[in-house]
Amino acid sequence: MGTIDILMPYYGDVGLMQDAVRSVLAQDDPDWRLTVVDDGKAEGVPEWFAGLGDDRVRYFRNERNLGVTGNFNRCVELAEHDRMVLFGSDDLLLPNYVRTIRALEQRYPDAGMIQPGVEVIDGDGNPVRTLADETKRRLYAPKITGSRLMAGEELAVSLLRGNWLYFPSVAWKAKAVKEIGFRDDLSIIQDLALVLDLMERGESLVVDDTLSFRYRRHNASASGWTAIEGSRFVEARNFFVEAAERMERRGWPRAAKAARAHLSSRLHALTVLPAVLKQRNAAGVKTLVRHAFGPSRHIDT
Questions:
Q1: Which end of the chain has fewer beta carbons closer than 10 Å to its terminal beta carbon, N or C?
Q2: Distance from C-alpha of 37 to C-alpha of 58, rounded to nearest angstrom
């Protein structure tokens, strides 16, 4: 078991970022290294990091804004250990996170991805049950007690039906992610695209129910705003069309069927529709209705 590389692509709220960093410093297993890559220009942030006085913490500020995917890839480049986490700058680690990941890595050393137990919180840090998260838990996530290893078409079907992973909590095999990287043609669904690429390379996923991460759910995120205005669903539709073709070529017909149906993504569009109707956003309404009810085919952007 080695050091866990905790990589934080940061842009946004300074206070939430500082809380996230403090949650890393509070780990009960000290074998971690935190790297923060700042894609913004907020005042006082470099000085705050300089004052932490912990040589396990590295801070970089990009000379120019790289955007979400560019900053993800910059973080991946900076990983130096075998296991890495792309930690959200508004999320929180529970004190047992590093210990939990290292224990699972010892049991499943070849796993490409490790998904620990997650609690969802709102913008104020209070536990919350949202429709999206309850749907993930009840309909799409595997029912487990303890831990379970998943791979191949079984895993592809499960995630293409509904992506139940909490991306910022996943611990990745760094070498595999470095070889693939994040696609620069995707801005919202790049996490599922990476997982699909890893699955096709034969990587497996361990899912465990040990609660060790707090995921913040609020509409002030990139995915929240693009959901409201509809553009994320154009990207999603085109991704699932491509994924279905890839699964067919691989000889995974059940996974191809799940990609063509992309049921959870269609249901998500319906849950967003009332807010878009309230805004009287005609283009957004058209996009959402087409995504929810239309045939599975590529949409030009």
A1: C
A2: 9
Q: Is 91 left (phi over 0), alpha (psi -120 to 50) or beta?
A: beta
- Segment holding 93, helix H or strand E: strand 92-93
Q: What is the mean pLDDT of residues 270-280?
A: 81
User: Which residue do the tokens 């095999």 mark?
Assistant: 173
Residues counted in the chain: 301
Three-state SS annotation for 174-237: HHHHHHHCCCCCCCCCHHHHHHHHHHHCCCCEEEEEEEEEEEECCCCCHHHHHHHHCHHHHHHH
Of 279, 259, 70, the closest CA to residue 182 belongs to: 70
CB atoms within 10 A of CB 278: 8
CATH 3.30.930.10 given to domain 4-218: no
> CA nearest 247: which of 150, 139, 152, 140?
152
Other CB atoms within a 10 A radius of the CB of residue 289 amount to: 16
Report CA-CA distances (Å) from 247 to 21, 167, 253, 255, 262.
Answer: 39, 22, 7, 6, 13
> What's the rounded Cα separation, in Å, for the pair 243 and 161?
12
User: Strand 171-173 vs strand 113-121: parallel, antiparallel, or unpaired?
Assistant: antiparallel
| Ramachandran angles phi, psi of 60, nearest 5° | -130, 140
Read off the pTM.
0.91
Separation between Cα atoms, residue 268 and residue 58, nearest integer Å? 37
- At residue 232, the pLDDT reads 78
Model pLDDT for residues 48-78, shown as the tens digit of each residue:
999 999 999 999 999 999 999 999 999 999 9
